[in-house]
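On clarity, I found the account of how folds are encoded harder to follow than it need be. Since the whole study asks how a given chain folds, the encoding of that fold should be made plain. The format is easy to grasp once an entry is in front of the reader. For illustration, here is how one protein appears when written out as sequence plus structure tokens.
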Amino acid sequence: MSGKINRRRLFGGTAAVLGGAALPALGTTGASGGPGRCVKTGIEVLAENGFAELAGQAVGVVSNPTGILPDLRHEVDLMHESGDVDIVAVFGPEHGFRGTSQAGEGEDYFLDPKTGIPVFNAYNNKDRMAELFAESGVETVVFDIQDVGSRFYTYIWTMYLAMEAAASLGLRFVVLDRPNPVSGAAASGPVLHPEHSTFVGLKPIAQRHGMTVGELARLFNAEFVAESVGTEVDLTVVEMQGWHGRMHFEDTGLPWVAPSPNMPTPATAALYPGTCLFEATALSEGRGTTQPFQLIGAPEIDHRWAEALGEAALPGTMFREAYFKPTFSKWADAVCGGVEVQVTDRDAFDPVRTALAMIIAQREAFGQYGWRDQDGPGSYWLDKLTGNQEIRLAVEEGAGIDEVTGLWTDDLAAFADIRESHLIYRRKGR
């Protein structure tokens, strides 16, 4: 690994006093009265050290509503109030810094009313991001956003583009690490083929990558940034304490803030690496309902789909016949029939295999609901989400689920080898 990566292991007291309010100690009742916390996030570790990692530097923060401490204060507010961090700008990803925008949108420029700090839209624009870093006088870029463990969740690509921009300008890049909420035990699903590179997958990683954002930053830096820019970025990952790769988010004792409008719970995040594939079909993926990515369906679909999936006995999941009416997005205001996906065993559940088995069963019973075009006829959104057009072609030719999932075996094994050298946290045991 690059010698530029500073893997901070900063051990402070168990109940740091920050801005006059004490955070709950590890192993005690959380700030919201929940279970005892066993994990400290990167921002906690950084704060306990008095923000020494950022001292004397003009700081730009890439974050959104998830950049919180366990007492629910936002880190930008905390840093600003502390007087120890010179924040000169904030950069918002998809959905925006304060989270007011829907999918595929950012927030326009504004002055944050609470801190007076300028907030810029950094969604999906590498060239503009470099310009913003230069114009705002940033010397160190801090990234802290809760990821959900899927290649097509765009925050990791905002991080990658910010790393490229920082490398091109000779800036430092600091990642404040957070848990992978669906565990980081293993990667699964297809690996992106370069010809399908888009902002829902810029580089060849697995559909469920099984890494934290800090680990991904290490991989991006060594494998992609240097090749693109000609040099690695000066990267620091402020590591978590107490997290390991077999944890689910509920194991951490940390509060959950929805990272985007259609990611309300950790249970949604567990489904998302698979059922997000229904975005690429004519079926509703549950946007516009209270159970996005859990309710899947369309008009004229009935009980036969749930019955076929029940007979398939897919590991770690059950299917309930369901009917719903989305308030926006696909099939808005129409009554849809379909299924509610229930995860019964997180460790046995494979979201990618499950979703593709659902698509195969749906096409057999209700073939009128086909693929969604992207950028015109012949350009399929499924190819961009899976990163491999052979998957779509195999489904169209009537392949079974074992044949379809076998298409990415070699690619996944190669990615797993690359991934291994960039991991920070242990993966075995619980």
Summary: The chain has two domains: 6-11+30-257, 266-387. The chain has a mean pLDDT of 89. The radius of gyration is 21 Å.
